[in-house]
Amino acid sequence: MAGEPGELLQGTLEMMVLKTLSLEPMHGWGIAQRIQRMSRDVFLVSQGSLYPALIRMKRRGWLTTSWRVTANGRRARYYELTAAGRRQLGVEQASWQRASAAVDWVMNARLAFDGGERA
Amino acid sequence: MSMLSDLVERVRSIIFRGRDERELAEELRFHTDMDAELLQGSGLSAGEARRQSALMLGGVERVKEDVRDARGTRLFHDAGRDFGFAVRTLLRNPGFASVAILTLAVGIGGTTAVFSAVDAVLLQPLPYQQPGQLVRVYYSEARRREERGFVTPVHFLDYRERMASFGAIAALGTYSETGADIGTGDDVRRIRILGVSADYFDVVRVQPRVGRALQRDEETGAATVIISHGLWKDRFGGDASAVGKTLTMNDRPYTVAGVMPDGYVDPLVGAVDGWVPMDLSPGRDLTNVDNHYLTVIARLRQGVTIARAQDELDRLSVRLGEQYPDARDARAQLDPLKEDIVGSSTRSLQLMLGAVLLVLVLICVNLANLLLVRGSDRAREFALRSALGAERRRLVRQTLIESLTLAIAGDLAGIVVARFAMAAIVAIGAGSIPRLSSLTLEPRLLLFSLVVASLSAVGFGLAPALRAAKTQPGDVLREQSRSSTSGGVQMRLRQWLVVSQVALAFVLLVGAGLLIASLQRIRETPLGVKPDGVLTFELHLPDARYDSTARARFYEDVAERMATLRGVTAAGGITKLPGTGDYNIWGTRAMTGPLAGTDRSSMAAQQRVISGKYFAVVGIPLLDGRLFDEHDDASVPSRVIVSRSVADRLFPGVRAVGQSVGTGGRTKEIIGVVADVALDPQGHMGPHVYHAHRQFATDRNWALSQVVRTTGSLETLQADARRAIAELDPQLVMYKPMPLDEAIGQGESQRVFTLRLLTTFAGVALALAALGLFGVLSYSVRLRSREFGIRMALGADRGSIRRMVLREGLVVTALGTGIGLLGAVALSRLMASLVFGIDPLDPSVMAGAAVFMGVVATVAAYLPAYRATSVEPSSVLQ
User: What pTM value is reported for the model?
Assistant: First the structure.
């Protein structure tokens, strides 16, 4: 483990939920587990942020819900991506990639620019 | 799309709140169970796994609350809770709640009712097509354009022929109510008929729904009638074959030409049962350019402005002046018909509106005071709750909801009050204010009242809550436990509110005082008549049975027969009762004397035709010469009696008796001079020329209002008179019997209506102001009881503390009164137009209002100060 499991970056939770659900419909606990595992325990999703986020996304029409029975016979609410949700994932993924690349450029910038600025 | 799903989801969550909550609980339980299972799998005991998983959840209620937030419905759920809480809080303090709700109810109810009246009478257009095109045409004089008189037939016909600006123009015989008897024997009934020229129906743009309109070739007084929908149902069973049938009116058969649509009312006289063609055929009246008796209305041609029409009319009037040298100065004036109809009510309604707005502001100030006082009372409660962790936002919202609860309760109570107030307004104003009878409570006005209630609640509920939210709880708690005087800023704000309340109340008080004073003056105004003990009623003689000779004899017979009744001292008749307005204004010319032949020889004078002992009955004294007697009949030269102002103006410096005047197209000798009488209840005197009915019966069928003076009761007289009339002619109807003072008072009723409303308002405002002043002053004194305790403990005597409180209360009141005085001065010009016989800045009224405010303030400040200082200092300090 690379340190303590951190809180999620604000705003990225929804994107990651969308990503998780794009693989298969899932209940809330499963979504939290999967994000934690896929992020190699960097992100720990608390229920206090997960469920409100799910409700918000449902309100925006990105998700639908249904009650199903899990593999070990328990009733759970499953979340499923809608067409709108899938489109939203594409949008967020593209903008995330652009943003993270931009952050990389900034962080990797060299001092060579300094001379130019003084001139 | 997403916005729609959002809305659907939110609404769904509100409706299925219970199911959502159950499902959320189940979902969270599932999550925790799964966590526990996972932990147990990694080697923890079942109990420890459950404990850890619960810790991971971090408080189930907290999560639920966050989810509810995300649903976007939390506001509703909390609001519901707050609402319940608000109701409980208000019920715990019923005094505050009932005063606030009562204040709102009176304010909203009164405002809504009066706004409805204003709306119905002032704001709604006339119920005719394109009402803006309708104008009233008045006679005026070149040098006195503000004059408004009836139009002569000569001028009317010229206007009709030559005015291009008019699409249609019509004459109406409105100046005296014309009735007609229909049916015979026991079935006789009197209906209301209106003589109109043929184009009347084009002017109002309402055509008969059955049959046809009147034609110009019928303007000879033809026996044709257009009947009302009501009469059609009543007499002809609503049968279309009624057209062409005969309706006998005053024993004369009329042919029914048409039936007006249901609900049609004349713009000027209201409900009419029959429209008959006017007689505009050439005759003496028609060629007399000095005989004004037509009411004229016109419809402007499409696109023509009233200014352009007036322009054309002015040019035409000058040309007509050259054509008719006897009426060289005759001009005409156009007024929008709507203004003409409501004009006299406009100012009183505007004033009423002003009074209502003042009351409304006063109510708002009252509410503000109440809520502010309550807010400071609860500052400690809020501080405590805030210290215990309640969100500030939540406290503000709760206060807001409390105010809204008050507003809704006040609004509901207000609607009830409004309904009663409306019924009262209609009852008071019925008959004297045009179109008031159609008054109903309008949805728009209800909305208005809701807005007023909500705004005042939001405004004044929010202020104390915001302040409570802004202060540090610790400060409040510290101050409250230690405080000697209440917070400075708040105190100043409250004092200014008291000042404004006093100022507003003062203005209303002055207004009420002035109006009550003027009502009294009107009652005391000498009208030149003695109306007490006089019964009046109208008799209308059918032409078919009474020719001019018969009419002349009959009216004298009636007077003589009445004089024989028990208690009767004199009886007579006149064409228009004194104090009830203009009637038959004719040019009157000095034919002899110093002014004869000069350009000052002519004046406009009220013409009256009298019978019996008219002057003796109403108490008009003879100043010179003699009254008419039985010898002044058709066989001798025409004679007149003039009132003093006619004699003074036409025969200055000489004796008028024996001189001659030209009037009504004839030269007549003056045999007597009597005192002037008033034309209206306000006491405006008018020049009068009296003609003897015995001599003048041939002119037309004058309907004489009978006047009978008795020393006994008017009821007995009325019964006796009815029997006597039946003996003379059993078919006659005794129409509109009433005491003369009541008949004169009818013209006054509109003013009385306004006065009653205004005085009621002023009374309400007064009560509200006194209540508010008392509440705020006494509360602020109560807040200081601790301070008084300390002062007394330190050796101050009770008297000095009471004096101090009183002084402070009076300073605030004096300041408010001063500002109110300035307000009254600013409004005095508006008031001047409505008050009568009194200066709008009458010092006694001003002083009275100031004294009243002072008394209320003294009581309001002294009582609580007395109570606060009567107890032992130690009991207050503990």
Answer: 0.50
